[in-house]
Design goal:
Radius of gyration: 24 Å
CATH architecture of one domain: 2-Layer Sandwich
Distance between the termini: 46 Å
Helix content: 25-40%
Structural class: alpha+beta
Strand content: 15-25%
CATH superfamily of one domain: DNA polymerase, Y-family, little finger domain
Shape: globular
Number of helices: 13
Order of helices and strands: EHEEHHEHEEHEHEHHHHEHEEHEH
CATH class of one domain: Alpha Beta
Low-confidence stretches: none
CATH topology of one domain: Dna Ligase, domain 1
Largest sheet: 5 strands, mixed
Length: 419
């Protein structure tokens, strides 16, 4: 059996944990630079606010209905996600984090009343984090995701649904839209619509040869999963990223070379932090900067530079200065840059790295120790506690007018309890 724990309206729910007066009120969370709505509470959805709607287009709805608006507070959301994961590991030693607000649990070998077990997981998550979590349990991962969706549709399920009897599965699949099935993309939905396939049950009944021909192996696996046959592997160990990118659109155009270099240095530091966290080395780095493509009456530039690291690199003192040099090379005077970023690719495991025959092992060991000290200080005092001079204040020029406090990740923002 597999369980899927899915946090309900996760970003909005995180904001409500520390603002309980917003329970039952419409909430939206905005993308970087407060551009578009990337998360909505159920109350905001009911007002007709679509996903991805630009704030300026929905401002009248927001003001008329007193919608609470938040800038994305990703450090807070990441920390609350980690707390959810910790709760889930109390119920199964094998947890696969699928996204920031979803995780699968492998329940193999666990003897329990799974309907009560699902409800217990949901209740514990609520007790320990105040985040509502829908938990679906079923014979396959695909069916578990469908079961978790039922929890959101039917409050009487009390946050947990155990779907295993063939007659119950058939009843649900006959009503479940094929477009909402995990693993079936928009292009596939268009093909299926032309074939008259509207529900998950219709898809499950198609001849296997037809599914393999039209949707290849992934489509066949999804079909088997809908039939109750596990075909999608469980991955309890997180997969290392094959590339890491940190980029931002700026709140205003940057025309000054040192200021642009400062922003790129901040991005490079964040990239190195993520690179070291997953224990990888980068063989290649690209630095890019774009002007505002929407201002057609101004000079346009879409510049990038690539830096090679033949020996593989994950040292702050090597990557950050290299990114700054690349930024200085691509900068063009008189242009206003609206977006920039740093991306590292061709990643390899640091544990599997073999140094060249003529490498200075003593210097490499000193560099590794120094980077380790920087990691330790940043973990203790927060990201950016140690910075290069070129990073300035470490501020990224982006608009976050509706930013909530970092309640759990910044000392000065920890809520004060009055007795």
């Amino acid at each position: 059996m597999y369980a899927l724990a899915d946090c309900n309206n996760f970003y909005a729910s995180c904001e409500r944990v520390f603002r309980p007066e917003l329970n039952g009120k419409p909430i939206i969370v905005l993308s970087n630079n407060d551009g578009c709505a990337v998360a909505r509470s159920n109350e905001a959805k009911a007002l007709g606010i679509p996903m991805g709607a630009p704030l300026f287009k929905i401002r009248e709805i927001v003001q008329a209905n007193h919608v609470a608006v938040f800038s994305g507070n990703y450090p807070l959301y990441g920390d609350m996600s980690a707390r959810i994961q910790a709760v889930l590991r109390e119920f199964s030693p094998l947890v696969e984090q699928y996204s920031i607000d979803e995780a699968f649990l492998d329940l193999t070998g666990i003897k329990a009343d799974f309907d009560a077990y699902a409800k217990a997981i949901s209740a514990r998550c609520w007790r320990d984090t105040s985040i509502p979590v829908s938990v679906g349990i079923a014979p396959t991962k695909t069916l578990a995701k469908i079961a978790s969706k039922l929890c959101k549709q039917y409050p009487k399920l009390q946050g947990g649904c155990y779907m295993h009897r063939p007659q119950d599965i058939e009843k649900v699949l006959r009503k479940f839209p094929v477009a909402d099935v995990w693993g079936i993309g928009r292009r596939s939905v268009k093909k299926l619509d032309l074939m008259g396939v509207k529900t998950a049950w219709d898809y499950a009944q198609l001849p296997e040869e037809t599914v393999r021909k039209l949707f290849a192996l992934p489509g066949w696996r999804t079909q088997q999963e809908l039939r109750g046959i596990p075909c999608i592997e469980f991955e309890d160990l997180p997969q290392d990223r094959q590339s890491i990118c940190v980029s931002r659109s700026f709140s205003h155009e940057i025309k000054d070379s040192p200021l642009l270099a400062e922003q790129v240095a901040n991005f490079a530091e964040a990239v190195v932090e993520k690179l070291r966290k997953q224990g990888s080395l980068a063989l290649e780095m690209a630095v890019f900067a774009f002007t505002n493509r929407f201002k057609e009456d101004t000079p346009q530039a879409h510049e990038s530079r690539v830096v090679e690291f033949p020996e593989g690199e994950a040292d702050y003192r090597k990557i950050v200065p290299a990114a700054v040099r690349a930024c200085q090379e691509l900068y063009r005077p008189g242009y206003g840059y609206k977006k920039a970023g740093v991306v590292v690719t061709r990643l390899m495991s640091a544990s599997a790295f073999t140094a060249s025959l003529f490498a200075d092992d003593a210097a490499a060991q000193r560099d590794a120790q120094l980077s380790g000290v920087i990691d330790s200080i940043n973990r203790s005092f927060g990201p950016g506690a140690i910075r290069f001079g070129v990073q300035g204040s470490g501020e990224v020029y982006s608009t976050r007018e509706h930013q909530s406090p970092h309640y759990t990740t910044r000392w000065e923002d920890i809520p004060k309890v009055k007795l």
